[in-house]
Each structure stands twice: as C-alpha cells, then as structure tokens.
Design a protein that fits this description.
The chain is of the alpha+beta class. The protein is built from 9 helices and 10 strands. The protein has 3 domains: 5-74, Orthogonal Bundle (Arc Repressor Mutant, subunit A), CATH 1.10.10.200; 82-131 and 203-248, YebC, transcriptional regulation domain (Alpha-Beta Plaits, 2-Layer Sandwich), CATH 3.30.70; 133-202, 2-Layer Sandwich (Alpha-Beta Plaits), CATH 3.30.70.
Length: 249
C-alpha cells in the first residue's frame, strides 16, 4: 500500500473523526475563500472556485459553510493568504511535498521546518523533490457507486486518463487542466464524488518499514495538523505487515 491516505484512515480508526473533520472544513473554507477572492464568486466563471466547492461537497461540508466562505471573499474582509509549497525528505529518504495557504510566511516556514527536524527529516529548497512527482487530477468514488466496468466506461466518456478500482473504491486520474471538466461530467453520471482535487502523484515509491515508517507517519500527521498546511504528499510504500503494525500501535 502506498500514499498518504492510508495513514489518515488509521487516524480515523483511533477516534479522531470529529477533530479531523473540523480541521478539514476549516482548510476547505480557506481554499474556497482564496479562490473566490482571486477569481470571483461565480463558480461557473472561476474553475478554481468550482473545484474547491466540489471538494468541499465531496467531504459533506455544509452548504452554509461554503456560502459563508464565498461571502467572506466577496465582502472584502477575507485575510490575504499566500500559496507556498515546501519540499524535503522524511525518514528513510521519502520525498515529501507540503502545500500551504498562509498569511505569515515566516510562521509557516518555521513550523514546517520544525516538523521535519523533529521527526528525522530535512526541509529542502523548492524543487528539491518536486521532479519526482506529477501534477494530476484525482477523483475518488466509493465502491458502492458501481462496478469497475461501469466506472471505467463513465470515466472514458468524461475524458479521464486512468482508473484504478478495488474493494475500497475507484480512483480516477485526469490531466491537471482537465480536472474540473471531468469531475463535472462524472457527477452527471455517477453523482457526487468522495474527493475531487489536484494532487502530486509520485513517479516511483520508496519502501519504508519499522521505526522509520512510524516516524514518517508522525511527521505527516504533524504537518497535516498545522492550520496553514492544506495538503501533504509523500512517495512512501508501506507493505501490509507494516500497515498492520501501525494500525495496532
């Protein structure tokens, strides 16, 4: 198993659903506000806002919260946030990309650097690991939406590039620039997705196990817990035995 989502599932199983959901809504609202402030409050004419709203709906964010975030930007009272990307290495040489929206670059940089240092990693320069990832669109549906053939057919018709289906659900990949259009086409056929977002997809994965795997998960959790951090991506690969050990810890 690979990627960041498995660890988030572990956290949920430990009873952190409510706190995680509250923090997630806050981050989604920030993205909506920034998108509306930069490109206008009409999602039909603002692709970034449209994606942000789709992502919020996919996480069951209340409509009132979405409208409040948009109105905050339209009212001119929204804070000024800057998009910042940090890159570095975690334990075991795992490459890590951190995306943030911040109103204080120094505060966020210090917090991110502290997380890396505390958990056996090293923060690098922008571009130091980015070349190991591809920027793509990712749309996730639950397994209950249909079988693999049904989803594959819908994805092809919508213009997606690839589909991966298993017992947990369906992950549909698109070109970054096509994400909004593909997501809208799929919503018409399959309903609302669980997740719609642009992601950094690792080109290769780095196997990691034992203490290094545990420390890496703590690093990712610490970064994810920061209010300014929007997304964390890493090119790690956990085998079933290691994942089981982490789940039982």
């Amino acid at each position: 198993m690979a990627g960041h989502s498995q660890f988030k599932n572990i956290m949920y199983r430990k009873g952190r659903q409510d706190a995680a959901k509250s923090k997630l809504f806050s981050k989604l609202a920030r993205e909506i506000t920034v998108a509306a402030k930069e490109g206008g409050a009409d999602p039909d004419g603002n692709p970034r806002l449209r994606l942000a709203i789709q992502a919020a709906k996919a996480q069951s964010m209340p409509k009132d919260n979405i409208e409040r975030a948009i109105n905050k930007a339209a009212g001119g009272d929204a804070d000024s946030y800057e998009e910042v990307r940090y890159e570095g290495y975690g334990p075991g040489g795992v490459a890590v990309i951190v995306e943030a929206l911040t109103d204080n670059r120094n505060r966020t940089a210090g917090a991110v650097r502290s997380c890396f240092t505390k958990h056996g990693g090293a923060l690098g320069e922008t571009g130091s690991v980015g070349f190991m990832f591809d920027r793509v669109g990712e749309i996730v549906y639950p397994a209950s939406v249909g079988d693999a053939d049904t989803v594959l057919e819908a994805a092809i018709e919508a213009g997606a590039d690839d589909v991966t289906s298993d017992a947990d659900g369906h992950i549909i990949q698109t070109a970054f620039e096509d994400l909004s259009a593909v997501a809208r086409a799929l919503e018409e056929k399959l309903g609302e997705a669980e997740s719609v977002r642009a992601v950094w997809k690792p080109q290769t994965l780095t196997p990691i196990e034992g203490d290094k795997a545990e420390t890496l998960m703590k690093l990712i959790a610490a970064l994810d817990d920061d209010d300014d951090v929007q997304n964390v991506y890493a090119n790690y690969d956990l085998d079933e035995a290691t994942l089981g050990q982490l789940s039982a810890a």
